[in-house]
Amino acid sequence: MKPSKGPIAWMVNNGVTANLLMLVFIIGGLLMSMQIRKEVYPSYPQNSIRISVSYSGSTPSEMEQGVTLPIENAIADIEGIKEIHSRVNASNSRITAELMNGVNVESVLREIESAVNGASLPSGAESPKIYRYEKRNESFEIVLYGDVDPIVLRETSAEIKSILLDSPALTQVELIGFSKYEVQIEVDSDTLQYYNLGLDDVANSISRNAINQSGGKLDTDAGEVLLQLDESRNWAEDFNNISVLQLTTGSSLMLEDIATIKDGFADQRNRFFYDGQPSASLRIYRLGEQTPASISEAVYNLMPQIEEALRPGISLNILNDDAVVYQQRMSLLLKNAFFGLLVVLLLLALFLDVRLAFWVTVGIPTAFLGSLLFLPVFDVSINMISMFAFIIALGIVVDDAIIAGENIHEKITEGSSLFDATIEGAKSIAVPLTFSILTNIVAFIPIWFLPGTLGLTFKVIPVVIICVFVISWFEALYILPAHLARIKKSKESHRFKAFVRLQSLFDRGLQRLIHHYYLSFLKRLLDHRYLVTAIAVVTLAVSLSYVWGGHLGFRTMPRVESEFSTATATLQIGVSDDEIYSVKQQLEDATREVIKDNGGDKLAKGLSTQIRNRDGELSIISRIFLLPSEQRLISTREVSQLWRKR
């Protein structure tokens, strides 16, 4: 027989090369899995520019007419802007310009700055702030709560924030829960009148004694010395000994003698509560190559120091840990992949040679691990979306390996030698398998060109799928035949007589199904081909009409069970503090009833409430933090419905 030629034949005759390539894919993929960036959702630069303008004393209507519309009109014709949306309240207007994918963001930013600066805005409006919107990736959240003075809570939170930032593994930590800190000085008018003082006199005394400014420089023989006058005062007690007036007795009248000095916050209506007690949150953000696991590990390593820093009456809880979410999803994927491969191996072993089934099954993880070598080239990380892409690819990759393996097995059963059968089997399936792979690749390429944020989020899907498909194609046509060509016929298999009998039983059953039932049914269909065609057309028409009629729902993302439920109450402008806290109490009481009646600690781990004052617009936001869905008896949707009924 004339020796076969071509790349498939060469690979079959050089099995060491096939083994080395498989090892490169497997070992290289395992090593890359330790190095590749890991995150819950893919991170990408935001293609949006934000414009913020403040105008105190105006109304929402004045803001819209005088600020928002002029800016929108000014930037509407700039090339590269996909859409513009705005948010307006009594004293602020925020305009966001969403850009098209692929545009030069810096160039568009300069054009927007020029257009906005040329817009006619009210004289009382502040200068517009124009910047590229950057989304931060929150990875971990710690809540501190307790029935203590807000200043004590703030000091404790600030101390813990410093502990976190001292770790080289943590870069960005944000303290949430307090409005702007200020030292509040209250002076009674009668006291001022008694000492013949005015508020300006007190203010000037404070200004003279609480300064931090440069004192110039001093040239010396040793070099230049910079001088700094530092009389800054940060806490209320630092202001006590400021001299306000020199008395006739020769003594000084101190600020603490005439005023009540205390630490406080600029806006008392911005408050956070957890389980009904004042609270603050420390949010840790992921930057660069940081991963949810590395951040979580760093925080837990610091936990002894954090707990030591807690003041009496202050407790701690962890509300968000992306490492847990990531690990849950990854464990689910790996578990499903393992059981899927096990089922494939068992089913193939029942109908084909066990060793052939083994090599076909091994080719599947080889394709997945091999694809990991190429993902960093396209800046793709391991995240929820890329995991979803792996799941999509799994079914198709299994089909490719089975088709190639089964075709080679068919050639072997026809009596050809192992080498000739594997080469001929791989060659005969090469063209249809190649076109099958190309067809699937083409089907996923349009996802790459989706516009806006949707495109930036989902473009990892075609990258992952193409990498897996290409490696799978190479493995099925070149590596798999090289392994199957070296499966030697051995009497050793007769030791497993029970399994051989089981194989024979399944094979006879399959042949009977094919020849007695399937072929006869197929013959009847062919004899009534016009009726079959008509039924197919009607089925297609009914299916399309069902979709076009709006009966089939559509979601960009599948519904995932959330681990929290949120209720928001919006209040009228001008409501009193008593009314605010009355609504807050109603929300919290209803929440506690729902939790108590549906499992208590087995349902939820906490309740947070925020009183938010955004430029005079008051709202109360309550959130139930639920346990993972597999640990509770009712869904998040049911919790929300029960909460709403209360």
Which helices and strands occur, and which strands form pairs?
Blueprint: H1 7-13, H2 15-35, E1 48-54, H3 60-75, E2 81-88, E3 92-99, H4 105-117, E4 129-132, E5 137-145, H5 150-165, E6 172-176, E7 181-187, H6 189-194, H7 199-209, E8 212-220, E9 223-230, E10 243-246, E11 252-254, H8 255-258, E12 259-265, E13 271-274, E14 277-286, H9 292-309, E15 315-321, H10 322-351, H11 354-372, H12 384-413, H13 418-444, H14 452-458, H15 460-484, H16 497-527, H17 529-548, E16 564-570, H18 577-597, E17 604-614, E18 617-626, H19 636-645
Antiparallel strand pairs: 1-3, 1-4, 2-3, 5-14, 5-15, 6-14, 7-12, 8-9, 10-11, 13-14, 13-17, 16-18, 17-18
Helix pairs in contact: 1-13, 1-15, 2-11, 2-15, 5-9, 9-10, 10-11, 10-12, 11-12, 11-15, 12-13, 12-15, 13-15
Written account of the structure:
This protein has 646 residues and is of the alpha+beta class. Among the domains are: 8-38 and 326-489, Multidrug efflux transporter AcrB transmembrane fold, CATH 1.20.1640.10; 48-132, Alpha-Beta Plaits (2-Layer Sandwich); 182-265, 2-Layer Sandwich (Multidrug efflux transporter AcrB TolC docking domain, DN and DC subdomains); 564-645, Multidrug efflux transporter AcrB pore domain (Alpha-Beta Plaits), CATH 3.30.70.1440. It is built from 19 helices and 18 strands. It has helices at 7-13, 15-35, 60-75, 105-117, 150-165, 189-194, 199-209, 255-258, 292-309, 322-351, 354-372, 384-413, 418-444, 452-458, 460-484, 497-527, 529-548, 577-597, 636-645, and strands at residues 48-54, 81-88, 92-99, 129-132, 137-145, 172-176, 181-187, 212-220, 223-230, 243-246, 252-254, 259-265, 271-274, 277-286, 315-321, 564-570, 604-614, 617-626. Strands 5, 6, 13, 14, 15, 16, 17 and 18 form an eight-stranded antiparallel sheet that branches. α2 (15-35) packs across α11, α10 (322-351) runs antiparallel to α11 and α12 runs antiparallel to α13. The longest helix has 31 residues, at 497-527. The mean pLDDT is 83.
